[in-house]
Structures are given as C-alpha cells and as structure tokens.
C-alpha cells in the first residue's frame, strides 16, 4: 500500500477477528508507535499489549470498574466483554511531566500520534483497527489495576485484528472547506 493511499483512505473498522498481528508485524506496529514526533525527545508514551487471557483479564477489570460505579448486571456483563471485541488491544499510555519545559499538551499530542501510528501501521500491514476510549480510559480503578503512575493517563485502546468483512470506503470532508491560503 502506498503511503498516500494509507492516508487518504484511512478508516477505522470495528468488526475484528483472529488473527491478530504477530511476530515481525506486531514489532513493526509497536516500533511505529515509537517513531512519532516527540518534542524534547521525552518519549511520553508506553504501550500495554493485551491478547488471549489478558483480554479476559482486562474485561474483568472493566467489570469491576462498572460494578464500583453501581452498574446493573447487564452493564457489568457488557463491560466484561468489551475487550473481547478484537483479538488484540493495545493500550497507549501517555506519561505527562507537568514540570517539563515542553508543554503537557505537546506531550499528550505525541502520545496521540503514537496511538495513530500504531493503528496505521497495522492497516499498512493488512490488519484493521479502531481507537477507543470511553469511561474505561479514565476510570481510577483501571488506572490502578494497570499500574499507571499519577502522571500517566490512557490515551486510547487500539483494538486490532483482521477485518471480518469488506472495509467500506468512507465519504470524506472536502479539505477546501477547512483551508485558507494566507
Ligand atoms: C481519542 C479518541 C477516542 C475515541 N474513542 C472512541 C470510542 O470510545 N468509541 C468509538 O466508537 N469511537 C471512538 N473514537 C472514534 C473512532 O476511533 C473512529 O475515528 C470513528 O469511529 C470514526 O471512524 P473513522 O476513523 O473511520 O473516520 C475515538 C477517536 C479518538 C481520536
């Protein structure tokens, strides 16, 4: 796939089945996440890869968080199954140093770039994915269970796998509506 095609046809896809990226392909994906613009070279990100039993474990943690929030049985069960919507989930975690001369917003953007590159590196190698957050990206119980430090936050969960069916082409916003030439 040409780089320009990847960018212009970029899309998310949520019907994800086995196989998940593995071996050198997964290594490329994780490496791509480390090749993003990074003001000051702070490397303000890290990744946690979940697959197989780890997805079940993550679901349990989601369910505990939902229970803490007073969710009913149906919602707890739904939370438990969320990470099982793909054969792999990569949590992208930003490590924000508020005291650094590089603004916190720039550090968060760099981690966001890592998340996007992870998704795109998967697509470039024949896989598909979707970036998700939701309440379980911000829940204190999840942060505690995933052992995030006080200055870390979850930027997203990148769900990855093989497309179950055809990936539909998207209609696009016309760039001319968003550009002015000074
Ligand atoms: C920071 C961030 C968080 C997101 N969280 C969710 C989410 O929790 N659930 C969801 O369905 N889509 C979420 N999305 C949007 C999807 O990743 C996706 O971009 C959207 O469905 C539009 O599809 P497209 O990427 O094909 O244009 C999020 C996107 C970003 C950038």
TrEMBL record:
Top-rank EC class of the record's enzyme: oxidoreductase
InterPro entries: NAD(P)H_nitroreductase, Nitroreductase, Nitroreductase-like, YdjA-like
Nitroreductase domain ranges (all copies): 18-161
Enzyme Commission number(s) of this protein: 1.-.-.-
Keywords: Flavoprotein, FMN, NAD, NADP, Oxidoreductase
Cofactor(s) recorded in Swiss-Prot or TrEMBL: FMN
Superkingdom of the source species: Bacteria
Signal peptide: none
Pfam families named among the record's database cross-references: Nitroreductase
NAD as UniProt keyword: yes
Keyword check for Flavoprotein: yes
Family that this chain belongs to: Belongs to the nitroreductase family.
Protein name in UniProt: Putative NAD(P)H nitroreductase
Provenance organism: Catenovulum sediminis
Lineage: Bacteria, Pseudomonadati, Pseudomonadota, Gammaproteobacteria, Alteromonadales
């Amino acid at each position: 796939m040409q780089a320009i095609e990847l960018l212009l046809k970029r899309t998310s896809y949520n019907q994800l089945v086995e196989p998940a990226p593995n071996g050198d392909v997964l290594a490329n994906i994780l490496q791509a996440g480390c090749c993003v613009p990074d003001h000051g070279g702070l490397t303000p990100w890290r990744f946690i890869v979940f697959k197989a039993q780890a997805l079940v474990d993550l679901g349990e943690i989601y369910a505990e968080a939902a229970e803490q929030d007073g969710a009913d049985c149906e919602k707890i069960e739904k939370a438990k199954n969320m990470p099982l919507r793909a054969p792999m989930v990569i949590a992208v975690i930003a490590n924000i140093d508020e005291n650094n001369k590089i603004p916190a917003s720039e550090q968060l953007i760099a981690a966001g770039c890592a998340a996007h590159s992870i998704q795109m590196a998967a697509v470039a190698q024949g896989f598909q994915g979707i970036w998700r957050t939701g309440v379980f990206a911000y829940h204190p119980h999840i942060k505690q269970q995933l052992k995030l430090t006080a200055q870390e936050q979850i930027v997203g969960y990148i769900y990855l796998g093989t497309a179950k069916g055809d990936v539909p082409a998207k209609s696009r916003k016309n760039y001319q509506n968003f550009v002015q030439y000074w």
